[in-house]
Write a structure and sequence with these properties.
Chains A, B: It is found in: Cytoplasm. Two copies of one chain form a homodimer. The first copy, chain A, has helices at 10-13, 43-52, 129-133, and strands spanning 22-29, 35-42, 56-59, 64-67, 76-83, 90-96, 112-115, 118-121. By secondary structure, the first copy, chain A, is α+β, with helices and mostly antiparallel strands.
């Protein structure tokens, strides 16, 4: 018996990871129902998310674990994890600390609306990025 | 001037298509706020979605356009299109005809909840797949 091996619970094996070992993740505000952001997780980040109760993503641009809120303080407390019918997308119900999920200082990353053939910002900046990250 | 070329509106060029020419799309019920499904669009399907007001996805498994509801009748009428801060994810607000988005006959594809280390189906089947597709 190899006791040094990382645990491999069935629920992680149930996920259909893509060719890069990632799964897309949607974060939804548990209170308002607002879709806050979309990101990716690898096996380790999803295991950490479930274990700690706080969202940990995989940053594809930085190639490392990204604990949401590590710089901004805008941690996401996870109330519920759901998996879709194909087993290849995760939906998180979260409590968004600070009420801001987006690095632009808005509640949601989905702040641009298609109007008259143009993407127009439709949501207010609640806190300037300088104040968040400065 | 080449009049045979397909139109290429700026709002489609604004999207950061992935290496396969696709963008991930989240469909949310405009009434309940429930996240219904996650799928992909290519340029043509997104243009058709905007032009027709009904969701048209790109089926990666079938390698063809997939007009949501073409078999089931569960068409999605699109109320709003949003783009995220990185320009690489679309959020649709939809009216889900029949109240069923999932091929299993459930309202949402996200019907499995993580409980005690297992994914458990938590939502009722509203209509059997045999009745939907039979």
């Amino acid at each position: 018996m190899n006791t040094t091996q990382a645990p491999s619970p069935q629920w992680l094996d149930d996920i259909r990871w893509n060719s890069e070992g990632l799964v897309p993740v949607i974060a939804q505000d548990a209170g308002s129902g607002r879709v806050l952001m979309f990101a990716w997780m690898n096996r380790e980040s999803l295991a950490l998310t479930a274990a700690t109760g706080e969202a940990v993503y995989w940053s594809r641009s930085r190639g490392r674990l990204w604990r949401k809120g590590e710089s901004s303080g805008h941690v996401q407390r996870v109330r519920e994890l759901r998996l879709d019918c194909d087993g290849d997308v995760i939906l998180l119900q979260v409590e968004q600390l600070g009420g801001i999920a987006c690095h632009t200082g808005r509640q949601s990353c989905f702040y641009s609306v298609l109007r008259d053939g143009r993407w127009e910002p439709a949501d207010p900046v609640l806190k300037s990025p300088e104040d968040i990250y400065g």
